[in-house]
Amino acid sequence: MSANSLPEGAAVWHSLEVDKALDLLDSNADSGLTPQEIQQRLQKYGPNELEEIAGRSAWEILLDQFKNIMLLMLIGVALISGFLDLMALRSGSLKPGEVPFKDTIAILAIVILNGILGYVQESRAEKALAALKKMTSPLVRVIRDARLVEIAAKELVPGDVMLLEAGMQIAADGRLIEQSNLQVRESALTGEAEAVNKQASLKLPEETSLGDRLNVVFQGTEVVQGRAKVLVTNTGMTTELGKIAAMLQAVESEPTPLQQRMTQLGNVLVTGSLILVAIVVAGGVIKDGGFKNIQELLEVSLSMAVAVVPEGLPAVITVTLALGTQRMVRQNALIRKLPAVETLGSVTTICSDKTGTLTQNKMVVQSISTNNKTFRVSGEGYAPTGDFQLNGQKISLEESPEISALSVACAVCNDSVLQKEQGEWAILGDPTEGALLTLAGKAGIEKDQWNSKLPRVAEFPFSSERKRMSVIAKVEGIATGEASSRGIDPAIAGFLQSEPYLMFTKGSPELTLARCTQIHLGNDTATLTEAQRQKILAENDLMASKGLRVLGFAYKPLLEIPPEGSDETSEQGLVWLGLVGMLDAPRPEVRAAVQECREAGIRPVMITGDHQLTARAIATDLGIAQEGDRVLTGQELQRMTDQELEQNVDLVSIYARVSPEHKLRIVQALQRRGRFVAMTGDGVNDAPALKQADIGIAMGITGTDVSKEASDMVLLDDNFATIVSATKEGRVVYTNIRRFIKYILGSNIGEVLTIAAAPLIGLGGVPLTPLQILWMNLVTDGLPALALAVEPPEPDVMQRPPFSPRESIFARGLGSYMIRIGIIFAIISIALMWWAYQHTHAAGYQGNPETWKTMVFTTLCIAQMGHAIAIRSNNRLTIEMNPFSNIFVLAAVVVTTILQLMLVYVPPLRDFFGTHYLNMQELGVCIGFSALMFVWIEAEKIFLRIMGKKAV
């Protein structure tokens, strides 16, 4: 078969015999490929590398920042202002001491700063693919032309014969030709933590899931033990790792709700501003009967355009999000992408892994069955403290000696170690065996002590075929004062007559029970009847139906140590001890977090690779699902079309036996239903789903670098409750962003209307210069807005459904509030402006006639301070609130007021900003008019309270 006729990766390699696979790839297991074949295939398939699709360059990202409609308008304003200054400079009409181009320079500086701010946020390059590339091996040993050679992994081609041994990272996907005791860790790819035993001789069904393909190996996984000869079947982008890379790059990043709202805000503000400018210019031309005052009208238009754009808003939002990330880190949520802080507040569905996130990733024994009784076991984690309960009543070990007997078997037939580290109980070894040691500890049986009473002399290790293990221990006499004549511990006195050895067996309950002929009852043994056997099997089924992992225990007295390899004959005629049912117990704090989710209108969904019975038990226990709710398995999901999945996705809260690649389909189905999805993941295969989700959440402890790079947030403690805490913080951030947008834009509308009114009511001139407006928008708006960004949460923030991520920024009355407050602001300012103009143009006035403009400027700034204090709460009066619950607002008001007065009373600043000195009477009038803003907002709250309505 020539290279040109090789299969294109469509062959399902795990369903083929080895010879068929070799034939399809025209390869030889002993001699490999010839140099000519290698060259042909390299040309056809290309190097064994992950290909990267070119993204936007740094320059493109930077230029994109200046396509923002508000920044474009500011650039236009700066250019026109510069042109007017140039004309004035040429004609010599500049006022004495006036600095030309200062408005242009100030506006362009703001534009550049905003552009840089956006660039820094957006230029974080996607590193997920780079992390994927790290998982490929640099060198690999192959058989080529009947010789063993070492080549660069990128030179591998389909048909190569690759040799593997312990410690190697696998460089390509391949079909096993032969293997010896091969174990491969595939956790990064499949999500399964345990190493997989591979078998070359198997031929599997086509629909076999990735984690169950025991006759193939995958690129990026690691050989734990053994060795193998492998036929390379897929390289580069056709490997399972390559498919993930392709999916990862195919997922397009959607703008976050906040980014969409800011775009909408910019469009509305700029459109509204241009309409108002047109009205003012047209009104001025009609009023003047021509274009004789066109320069004055242009200056008014420029001031209006600057006033309408909230220059400080991007910086305030960025700082608010950054502060949110700091608060979240303190709650073990690390935010990788800044807009994700606010996005969390919009989440409607949280799709979570089970193991380690909803559960402790610690196996805990829940119940034991022995002597025809079933006992419930209390306790948390690996701490060996807890009670044994029968029918809800705590019982003593003296009443039920069979518990101690079973606990001895748990401790002796065990290869793990239970120890205390830094105040925490931890396991060295297998978590299942750790749970058994904890159970024994609760019964007062410590492994260290029993190692001297029953030292191990031989064992039959666990194997996947036998599904059990046995330990042979020598019975050592002890001086207890209560023992039998041989000095045997009372816990095992009933096990023996005169035998010097004891064998303990644990494993699959059905297979272990099948080898038992007797049963241990109290301190005696009796013949195991068929009725007892059926009762034990029924109890096993009941435990399994509750999602427990069940092990059976038995023992056998021995006269001598059985020879090695005699397990089949030695493990016969056993004495049945009992059943132990354990569970990866739910985290204690998750139950309350799930309830908080429900109250907040967020639907939690469990997605796990575990068995459906276990998934149902945990989900029901935590309140994620109710009894009888449907569980959708990976196989059922695989058979569903996208449309069928979309119809079912709102009805299913438990997905079991799901491969990580199914997560992408679940996310997409939820999103098509209009849901806003947070998705957790830790494996490489989770990366596309994490990137597709509105919020991708990687595990900080168990997560791979690839999953972390594809995520928006990393859980430092892998805990579901942390997601809920972060969601709460996201809601607080969004509420505060809305609060300071109301604050900033309400004043901006007031500024625009005040500036527009000046020429229309015949006052002549522009009351505010672009530089003064920039000062207002950046300082007198910006500082209090930053203080409002750290306003504590309202008490009911998690007692309401999430606001729609697609809602307008002006939704829920925010737009009407801004217009209403802007008009009131303008009425107060225009009234002051009229009075100030008459006052400064009155006969005998000693000051500069232009002082009225400074009074307008000062009134607008100080009125904003009252607005900032009043807007802290939508419903509560200021006097009802603790003024020190947000000390930053008080500080911002004081500092901003002092800075504003410095512009009026410090000569260099007065000259630069074009202000005039105000006497105490004029300053008092400004403060009096400013106070009306605070009074109005507080009066609105009282009115709404009387009317029984809740403010926005």
Structure notes:
The chain is α+β, with helices and mostly antiparallel strands and 952 residues long. It has 33 helices and 28 strands. β10 and β11 (373-377) form a beta hairpin. α9 (257-288) packs antiparallel against α10 (294-308) and α31 crosses α32. The longest helix is centred in the C-terminal third of the chain and has 41 residues, at 720-760. Residues 1-6 and 479-485 have low confidence and may be disordered.
Provide the structure class: alpha+beta
Computed over alpha carbons, the radius of gyration is 37 Å
**Gap from first CA to last CA:** 73 Å
Work out the helix count. Answer: 33
Shape: elongated
* Main beta sheet strand tally, sense and closure: 11 strands, mixed
Low-confidence stretches: 1-6, 479-485
Proportion of residues in β-strands: 15-25%
Query: Tally of extended strands?
Result: 28
Task: Please state the average pLDDT score.
Answer: 86
Percent range for helical residues? Answer: 40-55%
